[in-house]
Design goal:
The chain is α+β, with helices and mostly antiparallel strands. It is built from three helices and four strands.
């Protein structure tokens, strides 16, 4: 990984100016959302572009024989409803 340094600045309103070369390289256009995270004492800026979103495709895909995240959510919600019904029946609420 090569490290190059580009300089931007922050305006009085807290807006960040990203150098033009980096905007072009990473597809950052007006209105592009940026995610900020901290890693080892540094700020990491990740543009949320179509390519970035596409990189998450299939990340939550379940393995054969495992329930999907949606199936698990339905099961959890069903268990919560059953618990609430039992509580209402027990306490007459």
């Amino acid at each position: 990984m090569s490290a190059t340094t580009e300089t931007g600045y922050v305006t009085s309103k807290g807006q960040l100016v990203v150098p033009a070369r980096l905007r072009r390289k990473f597809g950052i256009k007006e209105g592009t959302r940026l995610n900020f995270s901290e890693e080892n004492g540094r700020i990491v800026i990740q543009p949320v572009t179509r390519e970035y979103i596409r990189s998450f495709r299939g990340i939550l895909k379940s393995r054969p024989g495992e329930p999907t995240a949606l199936d698990q959510l339905y099961a959890d919600r069903g268990a919560e409803r059953k618990h609430e019904k039992e509580k209402h029946a027990r306490y007459g609420v």
